[in-house]
Design goal:
Strand content: 25-35%
Largest sheet: 3 strands, antiparallel
CATH class: Alpha Beta
Structural class: alpha+beta
CATH topology: Alpha-Beta Plaits
Shape: elongated
Strand order of the largest sheet: 1-3-2
CATH architecture: 2-Layer Sandwich
Mean pLDDT: 84
């Protein structure tokens, strides 16, 4: 059994990619924002706008988007950023 496990491990090692992460970054950052449990959508949007304001100062940002209360509860938000290609 041990010999079979060692042989299988060696075979799998040679067949897997040399890197587990993608060779090239996709240039996207996605984030989920969770406000306190009973926060209103206005409260959540205030903090989402602060996050978006911080990213405005980064010149490598190509696009940004957000969605408040995207899954129903008003205390959830989704924020995404697309960065310029550096290649």
């Amino acid at each position: 059994i041990v010999i079979a496990l060692v042989a299988t491990t060696g075979f799998m090692f040679t067949k897997t990619a040399s890197e587990l992460a993608p060779e090239e970054d996709q240039g996207f950052l996605l984030s989920i924002v969770n406000a306190p449990r009973y926060a209103t959508s206005d409260y959540t949007e205030t903090y989402v706008n602060q996050i978006l304001g911080l990213v405005n100062n980064i010149p490598e940002t190509r696009a940004r988007f957000s969605a408040v209360a995207f899954q129903g509860p008003t205390n959830n938000a989704f924020v995404g950023f697309a960065f310029k290609d550096w290649a």
